[in-house]
Amino acid sequence: MTTSTEEAAATILVSCKQTRFHIENPVYQELDIEGLNITVTSGAGKAGAKPKGKARADGLEILANANLKLKAGVHYALIGRNGTGKSTILKAVAEKLIPGIPIQTRISILQQTASDGSDPVPEATSSLQKLELSSGNQFSVLEEVVDRATSRNEIQREIDVLQKAIENHESALAPLRAFRQVHHDRLKRELFEKDKDARLRSGTRGMAARKALIAFEKLVAESAERLAQKDDEIDEDTIKEETHQASDLLAELQSQLEPGKIADIEVKARSILSGLGFPKANFDKKVSTLSGGWKMRTNLASALLQPTDILILDEPTNFLDLLGIIWLQRFLLQLRETGPNPPTVVLVSHDRDFINTVCQELIILRDHELTYFRGDLTTYDASIRDKKLYLGRMRDAQEKQKAHMQQTIAQNIKQGKAAGDENKLRQAKSRQKKLDNRMGMEKSATGGRFKLNRDLEGYHFTARAGIEVPVDEKGVSILLPEAPDLRFPGPLVSLEKVTFKYPTTKKSVPQPIVLQDVNLTIHTGDRIGVVGLNGSGKSTLIKLLTDTTKPTSGIATRHPRLRMGYYSQHSVEDLQALGRSEPELTALSLLTRDVESALDEGEIRGLLGSLGLPGRTASDVPLTKLSGGQLVRLALARLLWQTPQLLILDEITTHLDFHTVTALADALGSWNGAILVVSHDRFLIRRVVEGERDSEGSEGEGSGEEEEERRRVVYLLKGGTLKVLERGVSGFEESLEKRVEKLIAG
Where is region (Disordered) located (predicted)? Predict the structure, then answer.
């Protein structure tokens, strides 16, 4: 049975197969959806109308006949390239646009901000616990988090309505009127869910849902009639009964906001906020005064605090420092041990270490299908390499066998025709039939040896499946142009005993020290990593290195011929803002404007293509339609056309999928220029700065001789001082794990 819907401004089309069996006691932490199709369209259609084939073809197809299966309590990572629709799938689940998700299922979601652009998520309004940026409200951070977890604000509104009416001694009908109003408002909210459920279903279950909807609409209509009933039409017994019901409902609501319960929830909320990096002094700040990053942390805290069956987290680490990331890892791991029915977790993240620590299974989105792998990313990558190696060898062996058989067939035909030997010709025909129909995979789908009469099912199949070697899924390859020589030696950048203090207008107030006695020298080919928690002064250090800020004391020098490329952590947002101000601007037109005839169009296209923005993607797609990962590549192109000798990269992985992070790490690993990386991404620091290789060796690394000459240093910036981490990022990670243990214990 197939059902479909146009929901949320008619931009997401969903259809799937549903079981014909009614499930009396569903496990709300599980999903088992077969034949799932999701398409995103830009136009609005009639609500409830079934999408036609042409309408579906006009949209952007996300899933086609896929199976979405979630097992209760398991932690999943949804992985796939930028722009393939990961966020759209999560949105469809969270808003229950997929038929078969029970209305009673509690789903909490942390969504990416609308400006991220990493997935084709349409603008929509949510019918559930959608966690959006709440810049318009006047709640404090703590109030916002607690309210979302308890619906305290809505409950308090009902309490106020009922209490005011019951305490109104001037009107005997006031409690009845208040009770009817509260009851009617609840029915209208429930009607919205039942209406959506009826439109999501078809066939027998759809008919039952529509009958239930019609019956419920009658209840709402009757409630509206009671609400409009005149005073003189209400008898004494009804007044007495409904006044008593109003008092009972008020007592029930007040028990839900009992100070002891709220206090316990507030304790949990404070613990979560502290773990995510909120200073205690900021708990009482208005949410509307926070920056985008801190609002997203507030939303994340709300999602983690809510009681839920399925917890969905879309890039939860984007605005966290490494301490917050490690705390979140520990929190999610502890969720598995919370009671008999722990929530199912589905997350999207570019942080490989985070996925490897938290997730038990992978859901791979590729070619509009979902496949599953039990294990982490490292094991998955190894299995893909092994499969490619095995199938590649099998295919090569079969190609040699086919060539030999073809040669034998040709000889038999030639000899048979020359001698009139029918046996030779029959033998050639038999071998040709085997060559055409029986050469292919040596194993069946179950892993056993392939047998033609058992495994070749279906009248339309005439031959075995060919041997297909999996295509590498590391994302678009990235090639960086070589850095030119500087002609004469010397350090590229040098900071000697540099101190920086922000100026103050009052002489009596001492200047706060941001950096103190910092020494840092970068030479050609160096790999420098800088790690530290938010607020440790990393941004100030970058400003000193890029000469946008002058030191208060000390000496900052640069090589006179140095060309520096600086990737800011706000590069993607800046490009998105530029695209909104100039809607027709494309990657090609922007870069053409940047270079000012220093490069011709062919050279510009070559650079964009080498970074993964080829052809029409560069020339025809406006900036507003590019994904976050594509905008990162464009930002890199704007730096690399000048052929810099030094790249300073500040949180470059934020908008990239993990495949592209790997490709970028490989490209940076083999680049001949110097690199300074500021990042919370442990994988990037290990691969680019520390030179860590996977089991096959990093594909982009240079020769051994070059590696011996390359200086690799990871610095920790803490309390305004810069010191070398002897054990690299692993040592920093271990120290933060100890701090997280203290946070949890305290």
Answer: 415-447
What is the tens place of the pLDDT at every residue in 640-669? Answer: 999 999 999 999 998 888 888 888 898 998
Domain coverage including residue 116: 2-129+306-375
Unique residue bearing structure tokens 């592209």: 660
* pTM of structure: 0.78
**676 belongs to a structural domain:** yes
Distances (CA, A) of 717 to 531, 538, 541, 713: 6, 7, 9, 13
Cβ-based neighbours of 169, under 8 Å, separated by 6 or more: none
Domain count across the chain: 3
Q: Which of 608, 663, 597 is nearest to 635 (CA)?
A: 608
What is the H or E stretch that residue 515 is in? strand 513-522
- What does the pLDDT look like over 132-173, one tens digit per residue? 444 445 789 998 898 888 877 788 888 888 888 888 878 888
Non-local (6+) Cβ contacts of 142 within 8 A are: 266, 269, 270, 273, 283, 284
Among residues 455, 484, 509, the one where a domain terminates is 455
pLDDT given for residue 602 in this prediction: 92
The DSSP secondary-structure symbol of 5 reads E
Type of residue found at 585: L
CATH at 661: 3.40.50.300
Which strands, in side-by-side order, build the sheet including 361-366? 130-131, 107-110, 310-314, 344-348, 75-79, 361-366, 369-374
Nearest to 655 by CA among 582, 534, 568: 568
